[in-house]
Amino acid sequence: MPLHVQITLSHWGMPTADLGALESFPQRQLRTTMDVACPAWLDFIHGGLQFQAVHHLFPRVPRHNLRRLQVLVREFCAETGIEYKILGFVDGNKEVLGRLGELSRQVEILVQCQ
Length: 114
Fold this sequence. Notes:
Blueprint: H1 2-12, H2 25-32, E1 35-36, H3 43-46, H4 52-57, H5 66-80, E2 86-87, H6 89-113
Parallel strand pairs: 1-2
């Protein structure tokens, strides 16, 4: 159960539109995924999935190094002005529910246009 929630938080709460060639690889990965803040002692429960954005940037880094790599990603984002979303469990779920609500409104519009 925790892994399912973690995957949902990391992927479904963020936009996935294709912005084309003007968006760099780091920009796209950080815009379409988010990390979930949790204490280090919970890392074994999440299995590294709480560092989904970092993992998307560096997929070959072993999960036990992702927490340390997250510090470097934060610094990179601060220097370049790229947004890096890290939310807690409750706020992450709010983000997912908001995104699902947004998608349901889009479906309603599509149905009305048919």
